[in-house]
């Protein structure tokens, strides 16, 4: 602990940062042992200057199995239709089995993220 004569704002910041890192390591350790079944939440974290980690998308058509053709959309004012932007891309629906034909209807909206080089989303049919 810091003695009053050794107090400095930088030292206090280092102590808080170290404590936060220890807490984060404990949480990651618990998740690796117990899994995320009890976590029950999903978070998307961005910071100033960072790339967008998630996009709103609209299902355009079915491709194969649980793979769909999607297009990014921009959500506007309340009561207005989202407008499509960019080109179509393929994304995997994690809510459907990988070995069966997907049944998600077109014009369904979802949140898509890029994971391990693949576009994925979760939308129940």
For the termini, the CA-CA separation is 55 Å
Mean of residue pLDDT values: 76
Q: What is the tally of beta strands?
A: 5
Structural class: alpha+beta
What is the molecular shape?
globular
Order of helices and strands: HEEEEE
Total helices: the number is 1
* Residue share in β-strands: 25-35%
> In oligomeric terms, what are we looking at?
single chain
Largest sheet entry? 5 strands, mixed, barrel
In the sheet with the most strands, the strands line up as 1-2-3-5-4
- Please give the domain count: 2
Helix content: 10-25%
Low-pLDDT sequence parts: 1-17
* Integer-rounded radius of gyration: 21 Å
Would you give an account of this structure?
- The chain has 125 residues and is an alpha+beta fold.
- The protein has 2 domains: 4-34; 54-121.
- It is built from 1 helix and 5 strands; from the N terminus they run αβββββ.
- It has one helix at residues 9-34; strands at 54-64, 67-74, 83-93, 109-115, 118-121.
- It starts with 8 loop residues before the first helix and ends with a strand.
């Amino acid at each position: 602990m810091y003695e009053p004569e050794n107090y400095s704002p930088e030292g206090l910041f280092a102590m808080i940062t170290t404590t936060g890192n220890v807490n984060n390591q404990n949480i990651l350790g618990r998740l690796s042992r117990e899994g995320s079944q009890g976590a029950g939440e999903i978070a998307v974290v961005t910071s100033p200057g960072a790339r967008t980690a998630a996009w709103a998308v609209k299902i355009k058509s079915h491709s194969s199995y649980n793979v769909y053709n999607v297009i990014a959309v921009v959500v506007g004012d309340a009561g207005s239709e989202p407008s499509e932007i960019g080109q179509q891309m393929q994304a995997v629906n994690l809510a459907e089995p990988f070995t069966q034909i997907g049944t998600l209807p077109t014009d369904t909206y979802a949140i898509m993220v890029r994971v391990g080089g693949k576009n994925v989303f979760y939308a129940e049919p």
